[in-house]
TrEMBL record:
The keyword Cytoplasm does not apply. This is Pirin. Binds 1 Fe cation per subunit. Fe cation binds at residues 74, 76, 118, 120. Belongs to the pirin family. It holds the Pfam family Pirin_C. It comes from Cellulomonas xylanilytica. Residues 189-284 form the Pirin C-terminal domain.
Amino acid sequence: MTNLEVRPVPELCDLVPSLGPVVELHEARDVPLGGVRAMRVRRTLPQRALPMVGAWCFLDEFGPQHVDMRVLPHPHTGLQTVTWPVAGEILHRDSVGSEAVVRPGQLNLMTAGRGVSHSEFSLGAQPLLHAVQLWVALPDGVAQGAAGFEQVSDLPVWEAPRARATVFVGDLDGTWSRAHVHTPLLGAEVVLDAHADVEIPLVRGFEHTVLLLGGTAEVAGTPHTTSGLLYLGDGRDHVRVTSHDGARLLLLGGAPFAHDLVMWWNFVGRTHADIAQARADWESDGRADRFGVVAGHDGARIPAPELPNIRLQPRRRLPRTPKEPS
């Protein structure tokens, strides 16, 4: 997935001192991809008050919607893309030569490093699509390294009475995904049966957040019935989740990210100069030297928007008053 905004907002995400356990609902922003008639997504990361959760720095949810998704080749730097479908099939092609169809229960993980390009197309005529696209910021060294791609199909499942969680990134209570990430992270899809009441173990040093993908639930004593992101802070050993009628949740966590970083369009860097150079390289005749070529598109691609006429400045989290967790 790409950020197709014509005037993307520059953002610098930073390490923020711990606030301990909190309960904050951050509403989603509705964003059209490719114009008002195209697919719409609900964006919950980044936000002015919450630019990151661990190394998770971008989160779009799209669907459930019958739509043709046609995302032409576009570039990335300094991040990993994480594609997690709930319904539908998506064809991924990239400049390292990968071509893979990702289906529900499978994970696509692409590492941009210094530069990569890729495309994503839905399969079928106006299929029912429901998926999340996430970005993970890369630490120093890896962020300037080689691009790569992996698809993971044999994902482990953590189980509890009336609840199960497919762990697609990181570790949940000793249940490990073999997906290759570069900072301590957790990504899991949690499915609750009707009348579920479960305590999900967490890592105290991680900050955590929950996105509702379907149904209704109560998380940490707070009803969660919107498409927003429920941020739980850090310092928790577990979170209690209940559902009367059943629910599907996305649980994300991670150690606070140890590097400042600037995000603009589809690029993640450390400075304004990093972003400006990446854009210039994508728009140059020699773009393939850095970003490669995605086969099957006859040179078609998504051009980069114009940089804002200012130097990209930090965007910090807003001061917050911690709320007592339930």
